[in-house]
Each structure stands twice: as structure tokens, then as C-alpha cells.
Amino acid sequence: MMSMMQSVFSDTAWSIWEPLIEEVRPKRKTPPKNLRRTISAIFWRHQNGAKWRALPSEFGPWWIAAQLFIRRSKLGVWERLFEKLKDRDQALGMVFLDGTTIRAHHKAAGAAKKGDTEDASGIVRRLATHVKALAPRSA
Fold first, then answer.
1. Could you give the number of structural domains in the chain?
2. What crossing angle do the helices spanning 77-88 and 118-129 adopt, rounded to 10°?
3. For residue 5, how many C-alpha atoms fall within 13 Å in the half-sphere facing its CB?
4. Does a structural domain hold residue 81?
5. Could you say which residues form the signal peptide (predicted)?
6. How far from the centroid of its chain's Cα atoms is residue 17's Cα?
7. Three-class secondary structure of residue 113 per DSSP
8. Does 18 fall in a domain?
């Protein structure tokens, strides 16, 4: 049976993503102890549209993934990762949205706040959809 973490990143996919994630990681910061688990939690949350507190326990404490996501959003890490992957996979730069499936949040009328993570959320959502796409295909 495949674990929840492996359903986000296969071993092959993680071998591709890990060096890219390490490249964009803030160098002054201490790396997380369970990087794969934490990044998997962030991507799983954005793939499923779940609340942070709804993360399955297999991903560890929900607040660790939430903190890492927010901190790296404010430092522009997700944008740098997206740019690295976009150069590698041209299809990543082209995202099409069907307006029939998009609903505005009830707070959508307000302007973005300083340090807002909305842009980062969209980027991580796009990255999460391409986790399996970057894994080498077996013949």
C-alpha cells in the first residue's frame, strides 16, 4: 500500500524535486528535519484545497507545514522554485482556468495585505499539479 507521502512524491519524483527545492531554500535558515514530509504536506494541502488543520497526521504537525509555507512565501521561495521549474518544463508556465469552477472568497473584495500569501498559494498549487509530470517516465 502506498503511503500518503508517496502519493504526493514518488521516490523518483522526489529525487528530481529535492535538489531544486534545496537550490531555492533560504541559505541562512536551518533546513527542516523532515523536508520531504513537510513539502509533501504543503503540496497535498494545495492539491486538495484542505485547511491546514485538516492535514493527515502522516504529514506531521499541521502547524510545521503551515509555518514553512508562510515563511517561504514571504521570502519569495515559491516564486523562485516556480521560475526554475518553468525553465525546465515549458508547460508549467501555461495554466488555463475555467471560470465556471472558480469562486471568489467572501473576502475577495478587499485589497491584498502586505506579505499576503495568496500569490504563493497559487504558485504552489501549480507546482503541486506538476509533481508527477517531472518524474521520468518508464518505458
1. 1
2. 30
3. 13
4. yes
5. none
6. 11
7. coil
8. yes
Rounded CA separation 3/14 (Å): 14
pLDDT tens string 3-60: 776 778 888 888 888 998 989 988 877 777 889 999 999 999 988 888 999 999 999 9
Range of the domain at 31: 4-97+111-129
Distance CA 124, CA 76 (A): 12
Domain presence at residue 57 = yes
Q: Please choose, from the candidates 38, 26, 27, the residue with its C-alpha nearest in 3D space to the C-alpha of residue 63.
A: 38
- Tally Cβ neighbours within 10 Å of residue 133: 12
Residue type, 117: T
pTM confidence score: 0.68
Residue owning grid cell 541559505? 27
